[in-house]
Amino acid sequence: MTRPPIALTCGEPAGIGAELAFKAHAALKGELAFFWLGDPRHLPDGAAPVLINHPAEAPAAMAHGLPVLAHDFAAPTTPGQPDPANASGVIDVIARAVDLVQTGAASAICTLPIHKKALKDGADFAYPGHTEYLAALAGVRRVVMMLASDALRVVPATIHIPLHDVAEALTADLLEETIRITHAGLQAQFAIPAPRLAVAGLNPHAGEGGAMGREELDMMIPLLDRLRAEGFDLAGPLSADTMFHPAARARYDAAICAYHDQALIPIKTLDFDNGVNVTLGLPFIRTSPDHGTAFDIAGKGQANPASTIAALRMAARMVQSADAE
């Protein structure tokens, strides 16, 4: 079966995105097909892309250079110096990629990093980030962020909020939605028919019977017991400090964590360069490298493409798993 190529959005033009696209093409040109969606003026000096008019041309173009589907921006770019004039272009590229994947011209979206301040300054971008904007474009109320590598998959139930707000934000409804979306995503996009999920407690030692907090006793245990009665394979609430050694990781397919650092510290410790950001709950596949725009090294040829390569490979595998459903 011939699948459409993956759409790789340009992200912030002043960051390392274009460099990553070329390095990923060099690594993957004989393995999978993708195209970069952005303004050709923003490509590195001396680049030799292959301009295409439609995503269907990308597979054949891969043998000759990075396939580029042009999207006009308001201004050229200077590495390391984001220009608010280009904010609307960045936003429009994301929307165009969603349209391409929803109409079947692309099989998945891989997004290169954006700079949220530049988008807010230049276009009054109203979303906290990529993920929320993609959910709005798709008409989805709730999505889940998963960080994944060959070593570990983690899902933070609460994400970019202060630590002192986590206990209030981590409601039974939020945790249940997170578990259900993760379970469904592992089934549909990772070919895991009966996902095993480990759920971390909020408090040290998972509350230690109420001695270190009652969230586990009052909210988490009743919820997990109810979901187990429905057939979910759930372990927990577990003490987070014993969940991530090799023997523990072998017992689950993904870990549901209470807050951002509880999830991201272990995966970034285990596999810093190859972690991939996956959005579960969208009606299409979206992956992204797990890093930012790196303005300090933009234009210097120093960007490490490992996470972008891993994100494109994971998107391709997820497409295959979804096709097999």
Automatic annotation (TrEMBL):
NCBIfam families the UniProt entry points to: pdxA, PRK05312.1
Subunit and partners: Homodimer.
MF terms (GO), sorted A to Z: 4-hydroxythreonine-4-phosphate dehydrogenase activity; cobalt ion binding; magnesium ion binding; NAD binding; zinc ion binding
HAMAP family membership: PdxA (MF_00536)
PANTHER family: 4-HYDROXYTHREONINE-4-PHOSPHATE DEHYDROGENASE, D-THREONATE 4-PHOSPHATE DEHYDROGENASE
Pfam families in the record: PdxA
The entry's keywords: Cobalt, Cytoplasm, Magnesium, Metal-binding, NAD, NADP, Oxidoreductase, Pyridoxine biosynthesis, Zinc
Annotated compartments: Cytoplasm
Lineage, top ranks: Bacteria, Pseudomonadati, Pseudomonadota, Alphaproteobacteria, Rhodobacterales
Name recorded for this polypeptide: 4-hydroxythreonine-4-phosphate dehydrogenase
Residues at which a divalent metal cation binds: H160, H205, H260
